[in-house]
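Me: I'm a chemist; would you kindly supply a protein sequence with its structure tokens?

Assistant:
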Amino acid sequence: MAQLWGGRFTKETDKLVYAFNASIGFDKRLLKQDIEGSMAHAAMLGKQGILTDQETKKISEGLKAIEKDVESGALVIDESYEDVHSFVEAVLTERIGEAGKKLHTGRSRNDQVALDMRLYTRIQVLTVDELLKGLLEVILRIMEENLDTCMPGFTHLQKAQPLTLAHHLGAYFEMFKRDRLRMHDIYVRMNYCPLGAGALAGTTYPLNRDYTAELMGFDGPTLNSMDSVSDRDYLLEFLSALSIVMMHLSRFSEEIIIWNSDEYKFIEIDDAYSTGSSIMPQKKNPDIAELVRGKTGRVYGDLIALLTVMKGLPLAYNKDMQEDKEAAFDAFDTVKDCIILFTGMLDTIKFRKDRMAESAMKGFTNATDAADYLVGKGVPFREAHSIVGKLVLYCIEKNTSIDALPLAEMHKISNKFEDDIYDAVSLKTCVEKRLTIGAPGREAMEKVLEVYRDYLK
């Protein structure tokens, strides 16, 4: 098969070398973007008088027909071609004749593939952003339904202080909200058009790069032709952001796995998002959460792979950069699948409010509030901390809790305790009196929920 670059060579490429060099096996998914870029390029060439109106029309109609035929299955992408660009140009020339050979005027495969990847990645950024919005909507719904669902808060995976399920999930709302901000930032930075940069030094043809950028919805053309064809920062940024998304999903998955255990029983995962055991009939495994947790490492690997490819490349384009696609495509596909499945799993989880409240009552989660109570009685905090520490130790020895300990026994530790201690350390009081913005008290949480509702609008 004749190559786009074959004129310089007198020998046919070794078949193994050709196969090793080819990228059509994975870059064929860029066909739609390749045609979009080619149509914009042809329109610009026509506007500049480099192509005649008739040539421009034939090329445009020919490209539209190729895209339609591939979508319908009437035309199958031939993987014997080196890449998707070669395939499109060859089919176009076969169908419309000499005009097809003029499409590549003022263009290199270097700026062509740089454009295709930007167009494709731009769609992926918007898609991930929309999926994250859907996840946030589910989180918000669960928060609204669980403003009064008490549960233990943890540090070091040890019970720390009581809070609510709404407050706990609010932490993940903030994480995924930041992920969306990163998507927005990436889109803004990447939305410049490299087409017209040529191989690395532009072209002598009178191209109108502002026009092609405008046709494809870019904010303008890139300003350095060498950087245009060798820049993959936008991909590195996106893969980095996707890695952070996966880290957040993995943390959430870890908690779901723990909450689903028999020791916690905080939740019940819907049957549609669980599997059983081939040998143990009682098992109901949190496979989706575990797979999301496991696939996080896979996305990290895609990021590291691309960072490693790019770390020693001199300007401008190098064939190494062909390795950007498989890692990027894998990360795109993995993250989208993970968000979709995780959202579905979370949306159908049943929360065991009774178990959460029962767990919050145990483990001395109200110890800090007991210390604060003593501070209110005039005891310095450091001394109050020590007194309550002794009180906790006493309760452990007696196998009881602070709120169940008779006042007379509390007085063995400190005579500062009075009857109002029981209300001060009740679960409801411990949560509700925390009213600073960002805290779990209902009044504070309702203000935050209003902010979240406005944000999602």
